[in-house]
Amino acid sequence: MADTALTLPAAPAGRRRELLFGTAFAAAGVVMVLLTLIGAYSAERIAGGAEWLAANAIPLTQPNMAMVALALSVVTIQWAVYSIENDDRPNTYLALGATLVLGAAFMAESSFLWTTAAVTLDQPEGPLFYAVTVGHMAMAVAAMIFVVVVAFRALGGQYSSRNPDGIAAAAVFWDAMVVVFAVVWIAVYIMK
Q1: What is the enclosing helix (H) or strand (E) of 137?
Q2: What single string gives the DSSP state of each residue in 54-90?
Q3: Fewer CB within 10 Å, N side or C side of the chain?
Q4: Whole-angstrom Cα Rg for the chain
Q5: CA distances to 8, 126, 186 from 166, in Å
Q6: pLDDT at residue 74 tops 90
Q7: Which residues pair with 163 in a beta bridge?
Q8: Which CATH number does the domain 18-47+60-190 belong to among 1.20.120.80, 1.25.40.10, 1.10.10.60, 3.40.50.720?
Q9: 126-167, pLDDT tens digit by residue?
């Protein structure tokens, strides 16, 4: 019986998706933190009863339009992913730019809502209200920065149909941000 060395087969050819997986794990961590804040806000709102935000008038126009803007941005960010996977650079740039414009619209609507609602930190609901809404705004800013970075890298030619992972990773984080806002929209603005 001859001794033969065991050899492993060669690794399959293909690309590795570290950026995509890393972004998914980071997004999951941020989502968990924000969902914890939303849970604390909801528990305090239930405990507060009719007194919760009774001194403030939170209109629904701004949160509804912010939700519409973010829903449209999901379409545009997925358009960017589709376009780069098909080597359609002009549409990729247009889709990334449209996503950033819709993100800026969301930020303007949210900022205007804070001034209109006039919730103060002296109120019992103030710290939790701002923890949830500003926490989500921070996630939105991070998502916009991510999109700007991948847009510049796409302009530099680093992404193509052979390597669309950067834009796909930005889309994963962007979509997670939109899903969190949908929960914020229901828990904070609709259910008041």
Answers
A1: helix 126-155
A2: TT----SHHHHHHHHHHHHHHHHHHHHHHHHHTT-HH
A3: N
A4: 21
A5: 31, 38, 31
A6: yes
A7: 160
A8: 1.20.120.80
A9: 889 999 999 999 999 999 999 999 999 999 989 888 888 999
Q: Which residues contact 109 (CB under 8 A, 6 or more apart)?
A: 62, 63, 65, 66, 69
Lookup result for tokens 């961590």: 29
CA 9 to chain CA centroid, nearest Å: 40
At 169, list the tokens. 């990773």
- Supply the pTM of this predicted model: 0.87
Residue type, position 56, single letter? N
Mean pLDDT of 169-188: 96
pLDDT band at 10 (very low <50, low <70, confident <90, very high): low
